Amino acid sequence: MTSKDEFSTWTKAIQARTEAALDQWLPPAAMHPARLHEAMRYAVLGGGKRVRPLLCHAAGELMQALPEVLDRAACALEMIHAYSLVHDDLPCMDDDALRRGKPTVHVQYDEATALLVGDALQTQAFVLLSEPVPALAAGQTAALVHELALASGSLGMAGGQAIDLESVGKRLTRDQLETMHRMKTGALLRASVRMGAGCGRALVDDEAVALDAYASAIGLAFQVVDDILDATTDSATLGKTAGKDAANDKPTYVSLLGLAEARVLAEDLRRDAHAAIREFGSAAARLRSLADLVVDRIN
Ligand code: GRG
Question: Residue 148 pLDDT more than 80?
Fold first, then answer.
């Protein structure tokens, strides 16, 4: 098997085990209140690239974490991510009708249900993550909860979203745009790497710095690529409405730098991500391939 085939087999296996674990850890659709539980499952299951679980498992494997423990962190991350998409699609935010190739939750159900789906997914993530498991010391569990809460809140994803909403129609400097994206998208991707590693053995200083530099580069690359895809790809391929950034007069890497320079930046960030984990050698091959997976979506 080539290393490319091996990586593709691994990604499919992690995506499948994440789907199965999410299915198990979400309340059954028939459980009272059934409409809410059905809508939560609609928002989470059967779609998405599962990038955060992939990062979590790859970083965790590097630190010899147990796969069953990583499933828990991966599903908590994915529930937070799914909640953010449901709320982002609401009419009071991005007002979108298409997500993962299907009608958004408020279109399929209604706005109040979509709001509650996001709320309940957020708390379900912490129910899952805070549950004591024999393989983790209590301090490790608390650190994981802290990491996810910090990445999701006003200093992370929710704060980034607030900046995003305030920025419509404005010109941001490159630093301001970077801060917004590091918070809105980067914080949860960084947490995916840090939580995966945090499920395993203790990190020595150099390892923590290296993983952080990797996560930081990949987090920003993800957003640069998302901006490029929004400007260059059709809705059917994306599974969500394309061209929305320009239509909504949102500052993006494409509007700031132009398409060609945005592509150069994505490649620079790929190189930064690879360089950051060089010292781990072949043990970090999957993290390396994940950086490629993120950037190669535009190629
Ligand atoms: C509502 C608190 C709150 C936050 C929303 C992440 C976010 C913040 C909004 C999503 C808006 C958006 C399209 C951002 C661009 C990058 C991004 C997160 C894309 C979607 O993530 P993917 O590509 O989605 O990982 P899948 O469907 O593959 O899981």
Answer: yes
Residue 247, pLDDT above cutoff 80: no
Q: Give dist(CA 270, CA 247) in Å, integer.
A: 28
Pocket test for ligand 1, best of 226, 230, 253 (most atoms within 8 A of CB): 226
In degrees and rounded to multiples of 5, residue 102 shows phi and psi of -130, 165
Q: Which pLDDT does position 216 carry in this prediction?
A: 95
CATH number of 3-296: 1.10.600.10
Report DSSP state, residue 299: -
Is 85 a pocket residue for ligand 1 (Cβ < 6 Å)? Answer: yes
Nearest alpha carbon, ligand 1 atom 26: 48
User: Ligand 1 pocket, 11 CB below 6 A?
Assistant: no
Count of Cβ atoms closer than 10 Å to residue 258 Cβ: 11
Ligand 1 within 6 A of CB of 51: yes
pTM for the model? 0.94
Cα–Cα dist 184/87, whole Å: 13
Nearest in space to 144 (alpha carbons), one of 160, 157, 163, 131:
131
84 lines ligand 1 (CB under 6 A): yes
Q: Distance (Å, rounded) from C-alpha 272 to C-alpha 277?
A: 9
In this predicted structure, what is the pLDDT of residue 179?
Answer: 96
Residue nearest to atom 24 of ligand 1 (CA): 48
- CA 81 to ligand 1 centroid distance, Å: 7
Task: Report whether residue 294 contacts ligand 1, using a CB cutoff of 6 Å.
Answer: no
Sign of CA dihedral 269, 60, 47, 184: negative
pLDDT digits (tens, 9 = 90+) for 169-222: 888 899 999 999 999 999 999 999 999 999 998 888 899 999 999 999 999 999
